[in-house]
Specification:
single chain; 434 Repressor (Amino-terminal Domain); 2 domains; 8 helices; 0% strand
Length: 168
């Protein structure tokens, strides 16, 4: 779990605040000591992963201690991914501005009192489809992050349902 915390560049105190836990509890988890399910759920929600993934991360942390150069390589790969994402967003906005500019400067002056309305609508809808398709690729509304959130939500609901059924 320490690796997860360091990837986010959080101190133990910051993680404790975000998860509403004591710093001592965070230290116990990082040492691999046993903790309650509520603690695991709280930490998993802060890291936006499932409790099973968190348990796996804790187990991996017990097996292999974290070295500083590992954290540095993770930081570099995260920076590279962030840079690529920012570039793709920048290209999206540039393409959108370009297509809107073409439509306004070249297409609208050819309106001719409704005579060319059909072709203008087709061009507008084509440009809109291009922008919407590229936005879907760039912003990934149903990407990995969304998928992990949904899985985590379903697992939490299932555990709550099973807990409420066992209490009856």
């Amino acid at each position: 779990m320490k690796l997860l915390r360091l990837e986010k560049r959080w101190s133990q105190e910051e993680l404790a605040q975000l998860s509403d836990l004591n710093v001592r509890t965070i230290q116990r988890v990082e040492k691999g000591e046993s903790v309650g399910i509520e603690t695991l759920k709280s930490l998993a929600s802060v890291f936006e992963i499932s409790t099973d993934e968190l348990i796996d991360a804790i187990a991996r942390g017990k097996q292999t201690p974290i070295k500083e150069n590992e954290v540095t390589s993770i930081d570099q790969s995260q920076q590279r991914e962030a840079r690529e994402r920012v570039k793709s967003i920048k290209y999206f906005y540039a393409l959108s501005a370009f297509l809107v500019g073409i439509f306004l400067l070249l297409m609208l002056p050819n309106y001719n009192g409704g005579e060319n309305l059909g072709p203008l609508i087709v061009v507008f809808l084509s440009f809109f489809a291009i922008i919407a398709g590229y936005a879907f690729i760039v912003f990934q509304p149903f990407g990995e992050k969304w998928e992990k959130e949904k899985i985590s939500q379903l697992l939490n609901q299932q555990s709550e349902n099973s807990r409420s059924n066992s209490e009856r």
